[in-house]
Amino acid sequence: MRHRQSPLRAACDAVRAIPTGTGPASRAGAWEEANERENGSGRTISSEIHTRGNMSTCAHLEQAQDPSPRTPEGCEECLASGGSWVHLRKCLSCGHIGCCDSSPSKHATAHFKEIGHPVVASFEPGETWRWCYADNLIG
Questions:
Q1: Of 107, 104, 138, which is closest to residue 27 (Cα–Cα)?
Q2: What is the Cα–Cα distance from 24 to 95, expressed in whole angstroms?
Q3: How far is it, in rounded angstroms, from Cα 104 to Cα 137?
Q4: Dihedral of CA 107/31/137/139: which sign?
Q5: Please, what is the average pLDDT of the chain?
């Protein structure tokens, strides 16, 4: 009898399967895609990982703070330029709000590349995951 792979395991495996040389944006994008699928219980994959306590960690994730959002109404750069976004991410170093890699401008990743702040958190209601660009880890 063959057991069906859990959606959580499938999502983690999909992210791990992306070659590390493709950069953190590809891995973060794959995680976002996997997270948008529900795991069959009505919960997102990220909430399931948080509940199970299976999150990965690194020094950046362990030391991340929780600053106030600089622009809680949306992506800082998109608001200034009149752009649009799909999902929002908050920098856990300075509170910058940027748009995700599914958005046209990918301002959260651009912030990491320009400023070097390594950890973002989802700035979406009900999501509690964090991403370390420097170590390619979800936490």
A1: 138
A2: 20
A3: 23
A4: positive
A5: 78
Neighbour order of strands in the sheet with 137-138: 97-99, 88-91, 119-122, 130-132, 137-138
Q: Residue 139: what pLDDT?
A: 87
Q: How far apart are the C-alpha atoms of 123 and 138, rounded to whole Å?
A: 15
Q: Are 53 and 59 in contact (CB under 8 A)?
A: no
Helices (H) and strands (E) in the chain, counts: 6, 5
Beta bridge partners of 138: 131
Decide: pTM greater than 0.85.
no
- The number of C-alpha atoms within 13 Å of 16 and in the hemisphere containing its C-beta is 7
What letter would DSSP give residue 38? B
The H-assigned helical ranges of the chain are: 7-16, 24-36, 45-52, 59-63, 76-81, 107-115
